[in-house]
Design goal:
single chain, alpha/beta, TIM Barrel, 8-stranded parallel beta barrel, globular
C-alpha cells in the first residue's frame, strides 16, 4: 500500500547563509576563520557561491520536484555596522524571494543561523541584555521590507545548541585525558588562538560571546528572550507571517538505570524552554541521531555501529520519536527544518531519507500535524570548524568551477516529493 503524505506537504531542503553564500566578511565567523592558528580547518571563502548562484540553485530544486526551501538571511550583511542597514543586501534577499515565487518554491526564512555581526560580539554578544532588542530591531527592518513575501519565519536556528556543544566538548576532553593525558602542545595552540581572538575583537577572550560559544544560564535566557522579542516585532509588522523557532533535539533513550539521566537531559535540552514557545505558530524539529543514557551517563555508539562522517550513529528512525515527543509538549504544527546525514556513500543517504520519512509518514497518519520536511542539506557546503570535509548535500559542488551535480539521492528524494508518497 502506498504511504501518502498530507496534501500540501512541504518538500524541501535547507541551507544556512554562511555555509553557502561566501564572503560574509562582516560576520564573527569570518573573523575567526582568518585568525592565525584558527581552530577552523579552512576559511569559508567563496563557499559554494550561493550568493551569486541562488537563482540557478532554486531552479534546480524545482526541477528535482521540491516545493519549499529553508534558508537564512545573513544579519551581518544586512546590518554590517550597528544601526546601519545595507539596502543592497535587502534587495538581494528580495531577489531570492522573487526567485522562490517564480519557481513555485515556498520560502521558510531563518533570521539567525549561528553567525552574528562582529559589532554585536564587541557589544557583548549573546550574553548582553541588549541583544534581544538589537535582534528585534534587525528583524523589524527585514520584515518591514520583505515580510509580504515570507510566509514562514524561524527566528533563531537551534537556540539550544550550546547545551549539546558543551556536552560534546566535555566528552571529548574526558576521552583525550583518559587516552593520552593532557596534550600540552594542543593547549598552547588553543591559548594562542584565544589570545589572537581577543586581540581581533578588542576584548578579553572570556568576554567574547559568539552564538556557538560557551553559554551561561543568563546567556541561554537571552537567546530565548531574543526569540520572544523578535516574535512580538514580526507579529506587529508582518502579521500574516507564521513565526517559530528551531531546536536541536536528539532521540533521547535510556537503558535500565539510566532513566533519570535521560529525563534530566530532556529537561535541559528541550522542556525547560517550553514557556518561551507558547506564543509560536509552529515548531521546527532538527534531528540527526540518538543519545542513549545508562546508569553511569551517556553511552557512546557501539564500536561496530554504523557512523556518519560526523561520528554520529546512523539512526534515521530517531526522527519519528522526536516528532512525537515534541508534539506531545508543544501541541503546535511541526516542520522538520533539518534532518540528514554526512556521508560519502550516497546509497546510505537514500536509505537514511527513506527510513526518516517512514517515521514522518507514521506521525502524520496518527494525526500529528507535520507540515513539511526540509532535508539537510541542499548542497555540500562549509561545515563550520570542519571546513568542506563533510558532505551532507543532495547536490555535489565542484568548488573549482562551482558546478552543481545532483546525486542519486536528490533524484530519489525528488521523486518522493513529486508523488507526495514513499516509493
Amino acid at each position: 500500500m502506498t504511504k501518502r503524505f498530507p496534501e500540501g506537504f512541504y518538500w524541501g531542503a535547507s541551507t544556512a547563509a554562511h555555509q553557502v553564500e561566501g564572503n560574509n566578511i562582516h560576520s564573527d565567523f569570518w573573523l575567526m576563520e582568518h585568525l592565525e592558528g584558527s581552530i577552523f580547518q579552512e576559511p569559508s571563502g567563496d563557499a559554494v557561491d550561493h550568493y551569486r548562484l541562488y537563482r540557478e540553485d532554486i531552479a534546480l530544486m524545482a526541477k528535482l520536484g521540491l516545493n519549499s526551501y529553508r534558508f537564512s538571511f545573513e544579519w551581518s550583511r544586512i546590518e554590517p555596522e550597528e544601526g546601519q542597514f545595507n539596502q543592497e543586501a535587502i534587495d538581494h534577499y528580495r531577489d531570492v524571494l522573487k526567485a522562490c515565487q517564480e519557481f513555485n518554491i515556498m520560502p521558510i526564512v531563518t533570521l539567525h543561523h549561528f553567525t552574528s555581526p562582529q559589532w554585536l560580539i564587541r557589544a557583548g554578544g549573546w550574553e548582553s541584555e541588549e541583544t534581544p532588542q538589537r535582534f528585534a530591531r534587525y528583524c523589524e527592518h527585514v520584515m518591514q521590507q520583505l515580510g509580504d513575501a515570507i510566509p514562514y519565519v524561524c527566528t533563531i536556528n537551534e537556540a539550544n545548541i550550546s547545551i549539546g556543544i558543551a556536552k560534546i566538548i566535555k566528552r571529548h576532553q574526558a576521552q583525550e585525558t583518559a587516552q593520552v593525558g593532557v596534550n600540552t602542545g594542543s593547549m598552547e595552540r588553543m591559548q594562542q588562538y584565544y589570545a589572537a581572538l581577543g586581540k581581533a575583537f578588542g576584548l578579553p577572550p572570556q568576554e567574547i560571546h559568539s552564538f556557538l560559544g560557551a553559554r551561561s544560564e543568563k546567556g541561554l535566557s537571552i537567546i530565548f528572550k531574543a526569540h520572544e522579542a523578535a516574535r512580538e516585532t514580526i507579529r506587529r509588522v508582518s502579521p500574516q507571517t507564521k513565526v517559530g523557532i528551531t531546536l536541536s533535539l536528539y532521540d533521547i533513550q535510556s537503558l535500565p538505570g539510566g532513566e533519570a539521566l535521560a529525563a534530566q537531559a530532556l529537561q535541559e535540552e528541550f522542556l525547560q524552554f517550553l514557556p518561551y514557545l507558547e506564543g509560536d505558530d509552529f515548531f521546527g524539529v532538527q534531528n540527526y541521531t540518538r543519545y542513549v543514557y545508562g546508569p553511569d551517563g551517556y553511552i557512546p555508539p557501539a564500536a561496530d555501529a554504523e557512523k556518519t562522517q560526523m561520528g554520529n550513529e546512523f539512526y534515521p528512525q530517531g526522527l519519528e520519536s522526536v516528532i512525537r515527543y515534541a508534539y506531545e509538549h508543544v501541541k503546535k504544527p511541526i516542520i522538520v527544518t533539518e534532518n540528514g546525514i554526512a556521508t560519502a556513500n550516497d546509497e546510505r543517504r537514500i536509505a537514511y531519507i527513506d527510513q526518516a520519512l517512514q517515521g514522518v509518514q507514521a506521525c502524520a497518519a496518527d494525526g500529528i500535524p507535520v507540515q513539511g520536511y526540509m532535508h539537510w542539506s541542499l548542497m555540500d557546503n562549509f561545515e563550520w570548524q570542519l571546513g568542506f570535509s563533510k558532505t551532507f548535500g543532495l547536490i555535489a559542488v565542484d568548488r573549482s568551477t562551482q558546478t552543481r551535480t545532483p546525486k542519486p539521492s536528490a533524484y530519489h528524494y525528488g521523486s518522493i516529493a513529486k508523488n507526495n508518497a514513499l516509493l
